[in-house]
Amino acid sequence: MEVLERLVGDIALPKMVRVRQKFADDHIADVAGAVLQGLRKPEIAGRVTPGMSIAIAVGSRGLADLPILVAATVKGLKEAGAEPFIVPAMGSHGGATAEGQALLLNGLGVTEEAVGAPIRSSMETVSLGKLPNGLPVLMDRHAMEADGIVVLNRVKPHTSFSAPIESGLAKMITIGLGKQEGAASCHAMGFGYMADNVVDMARIKLDKCRILFGIATVENSYDRICRVEVVPAESILDEEPALLKEAKQRLPRIMFNPLDVLVVDRMGKEFSGTGMDPNITGRASTSLVQGSLTTARMVVLDLTAKGGGNATGIGLADVTTRKLFNKIDLVATYANHITSTVLSGAKIPMIMETERLAIMAAVRTCNALDMSKLRMVRIPNTLHIGEIQISESLLGEAKANPAVEILGEPEAMTFDAAGELAEFAAAH
């Protein structure tokens, strides 16, 4: 450590300024009410009859108000006389085990007590045949045994491919409800074929399974739900592209580009499928997603606990910390990458003993010629980038941008005796 301290110790870190990036913030105040209103539409309510057992597919993503969405769905189905239960629909996440997937739901606030319905978690699947290319189509056994299936998910851009349908209801049907084996099947040919395989497999499941409808949300730039749509099963593939288009228009961005250094305080599955959203960082595991941000060095400091040690996407960073590395569950992380067949995100970046050294190493190696003009941004994570910190050299750009509000004066980055960076001050 002394050698590394000597190698980077002469680096003077820039003063940082808190700023607010301003995006459209219209959102739904009563999320539960919006769900119940959608469930009571005649074309939806008529699909549910008293006594029906209904599997509600819930994934591992950190959807805004997820427990509220699930609880409202349970309430609406019970009002119609149905007997709902929760099925984890998350492909290979949770270490590809039934117990791990139930724990992930628990960590997201989806417990039997909170939502009012039991959780039935299994990795067992039922075969529904094969695509013309030979890939098997698989479906969660508990969902197949139910009288009906409801799929709940946020519609958003995918982190590894671009298409009219990316991450949303169709992907939840194909990959989430396919469990590990079904997810592996869909990924088997690589992300270049994902757009077709997701839709083709979903079409077979919509035809052969008792899927009643999907509940889709769209979130604004501040991670708030701005749209809830309850979509009949037969309309999912037709309606999802418009929802994705809206979601892409709502996607936030870092308004300073290019960057010498991007500091990400925390990564995690609740923020993005790849821990750090490539649509924000500009760093993707495949060439099929082209982020707009250019960053010479990216450093990630910590891993949240909600993902159960899943550090999928860690390889997209250049530098990380010993603290984060020690939290990685390699089984959970590798299960995700083996299933997706994309291994670059599982590579381990340079590991530094403290957050201070990690940031200094990123600055030291970013090849900026004039450190007084260093372009550095610090974000809490890739889901919450309303309030961020920028280096003093970016103040001119911030003042010239009407979508940026300056919240404070330039301040030195402060670290405790253990080299840990002071907590991010943004409120989100």
UniProtKB/TrEMBL annotation:
InterPro entries: LarA-like_N. Residues 27-189 form the LarA-like N-terminal domain. This is LarA-like N-terminal domain-containing protein. One of its GO terms (molecular function) is lactate racemase activity. It holds the Pfam family Lar_N.
